[in-house]
Each structure stands twice: as C-alpha cells, then as structure tokens.
Amino acid sequence: MRILLVEDNRDLANWLAKLLRAGNFAVDCVHDGVDADHVLSVNDYALVILDLSLPKLGGLELLRRLRQRGSAVPVIILTANDSLDGRVIGLDAGADDFLAKPFEFAELEARIRVQLRRSNNRAVAVIRCGDLEFDSKTRLFRLGGSDFALPPREHAVLEHLLLKAGETVSKTQIRESVFDFEADADPSAIEIYVHRLRRKLEGSQVSIRTLRGLGYMLDSHEDR
C-alpha cells in the first residue's frame, strides 16, 4: 500500500518513512503543503499522514482542498497541539484521526491499521481468500496454515490483489499502489512480480488470473 507522508521535519520524516517501508508500505515524502497539494491531485494513496505546521500551505487548508476535490482517502493528522479545539477544527476540515507529538511508532502503526481496515470496509483484522490469509495487524501472510514470507514488492502486489479479491485490478492500479516516487516504475516489473507469485501459489487454493487487456484477478478455486 502506498502512503503519503507530509512532514516538514526531515529527520522525523526520514525516520517514519524508514519504519513504514520496513512494514512493507510504499512511502512518498513531501515537506511542504504546496508539493503535497500537487501530488495528492495526481496520485492515489491508501492513506495520508499529515503534519499541520507546514510551510507554503498549512495542513488544514491542504486537508480542506483535498476534501473539496472529493477525495475520501484516510488522513491521520500529526500535531503538537492536541487541544479539544484543535481536534474539532481538524475533524471539521476532514481529518479521520489525530496523533499528538511526540508519539510512539507502535501507536501510529495501530492507527494506520484501523484506518486502512475502515477504508477497505474490513471489520476484521484477518483477510482470507481460500487458504491464503493476511493479518493486517502483523502484516504477514499465511498460506495453507504456514507462514508465507515474500520479498517487499511481491508482498505489496499480493496484498493489493487480496484486498481486491474477486475484482479485476489493472496494472496501473497495482503500480501506483506498489511503487513510491523513488522506485523504478517500469510496467513490465508488475508482470515479473505476478509471475513469481503465481509460481509460489502453485498447489494452493488461490491463483492469479490474467484478464487480457484489463489486468489481474486473485480468486479461490472454490469460488469458480
């Protein structure tokens, strides 16, 4: 999943991005409100982590513009001001959650998981398709009852397909979910990751189908 981190403190931004990437998220970092407004207008994200004190364009105005464009992407605000009035203003502007600085990364992770479950209409933490399971708390897969470890990019592709199990997902959608700004976004890379995943899923109850000209679909053999 691809996250946008909007934070002008570069040391904090680098620290958060490193930890999020270790958790198999693709992370784009921007450091001012104008750049953030631009990338939000041209890219789709699973979630936004937004500092309020930004140069060029404040976080609240950025959030208002985002909601005025009709975006429902979950937004977690990072703020040094955790007053009641501040939370009310942020919620009225369209925020989904708040986290006061300083904070523990484990708490931010938990809040991210909650927002992602809500945005994907998932009431439970474990997502299943056939004998494939994904625990959104640990962000780990199990296949046939055993741990199913994957390299980061393959992990991200399979997670995206599993969240959309039974639906057609285009290469563009997968690429935008898996690659951040700094990654090599060659479209042929998606084909390579899907090919590798197919081999690793052989013998299981799930497979990745190619729908020519449309994209891919993950489904269970039992559902056919």
UniProtKB/TrEMBL annotation:
Q: Which residues form the OmpR/PhoB-type domain?
A: 124-220
Q: Which residues bind DNA?
A: 124-220
All residue ranges annotated as the Response regulatory domain in the record: 2-116
Q: What keywords are annotated for this sequence in UniProt?
A: DNA-binding, Phosphoprotein, Transcription, Transcription regulation
Pfam families annotated for this entry? Response_reg, Trans_reg_C
Which residue positions does 4-aspartylphosphate occur at?
51
**The keyword Phosphoprotein belongs to this UniProt entry's keyword annotation:** yes
Q: Which domain of life is it from?
A: Bacteria
PANTHER family according to UniProt: REGULATOR OF RPOS, TRANSCRIPTIONAL REGULATORY PROTEIN TCTD
Record-given protein name: Response regulator
